[in-house]
Amino acid sequence: QITLKESGPTLVKPTQTLTLTCTFSGFSLSTNGVGVGWIRQPPGKALEWLALIYWDDDKRYSPSLKSRLTITKDTSKNQVVLTMTNMDPVDTATYYCAHRAIQDYGGIQNWFDPWGQGTLVTVSS
Amino acid sequence: DIQMTQSPSSLSASVGDRVTITCRASQSISRYLNWYQLKPGKAPKFLIYAASTLQSGVPSRFSGSGSGTDFTLTISSLQPEDFATYYCQQSYSTPTFGQGTRLEIK
C-alpha cells in the first residue's frame, strides 16, 4: 500500500522560504518510471501542479513558478522536499504531494495516485 | 503550457441524475487525460486515466470519453457520495489541471 504525508510549517511570513517534506512508503523512488509530484490548491481555487521529480533525478517545474521552486529527493529516507522562495499571501494553499504512477497503455500513461492528505500553509505577517 | 478548460464550473443535480462534465485541451493531447474527485478535508481521489479507463475500485457509474482536445466525464446515476469537485488533468506534457467543476446537490 502506497502512502504519502506532507509536513512543514502551517504559517510562514511574506518573503520567507517555505520548505515542505513528503514522506512516503510503499514504493521506491529508485524504481524505473516512478515519480513524486507536488500540487497545491488555494482556498476556493483550482488545483495547480508545481513540480515533479523522477526516479532518475530528472525534475520538472511549473513554468510560472520555476524561478521559485526546488524539488529534491532523499531515496534512503523515502522523502521528497519542495522549497518555494519569496512566499506571498497568494501562495496560501493546501499543498499536496502525490505518487506519479505510469502504465504502458498505448503510450506511457501517467497520473497522480495516491495523494497525501495535504497540508495547509498560510502566508501572513 | 497546455491549458485545460472545464465546463460547467458548477452544476446542481439530484440523486439519480445523469451528469456530464466537459474538459477541453488547448491542443491535441491524444488520450492523455485523467480525472480526479476532490472532497473537502480528504485526499484527492483518482478516477480515470487514458481518458476512459476506470481506476480499480471506481464505481462503474463513472465513465470517461474523448480524444484529441475534447473529453467528458459522465456519472450515470448520481449517488450522495458523488457530490464533490471534479478536475481533469492532462498528462501529455508537464501536467496541467482544469479549473474544476463543483457538483452540488439540487
Description of the molecule:
- The complex is a heterodimer of chains A (125) and B (106).
- Chain A is mainly β and 125 residues long.
- The termini of chain A are far apart.
- Chain B has 106 residues and is mainly β.
- In chain B, strands 2, 4, 5, 6, 9, 10 and 11 form a 7-stranded mixed sheet that branches.
- Chain B is globular.
- The interface between A and B is medium-sized, with 27 and 25 residues.
Q: Notable features of this structure?
A:
heterodimer, A: 125 residues, mainly beta, 7-stranded mixed β-sheet, 4-stranded antiparallel β-sheet, 55% strand, globular, B: 106 residues
Termini Cα gap of chain B: 36 Å
Backbone structural class of chain B: mainly beta
Average per-residue pLDDT of chain B, rounded, comes to 97
| Principal-axes shape call of chain B | globular
**How many extended strands of chain B?**
11
Please tell me the overall pLDDT of chain A.
96
Taking all Cα atoms into account, the compactness measure Rg of chain A is: 14 Å
Q: In percent, how helical is the residue content of chain B?
A: under 10%
Q: Enumerate how many helices of chain A there are, as a single number.
A: 0
Order of helices and strands of chain A: EEEEEEEEEEE
Beta strand % of chain B:
over 45%
Are there runs of chain B of 5+ residues with pLDDT below 50, and where?
none
Succession of helices and strands of chain B? EEEEEEEEEEE
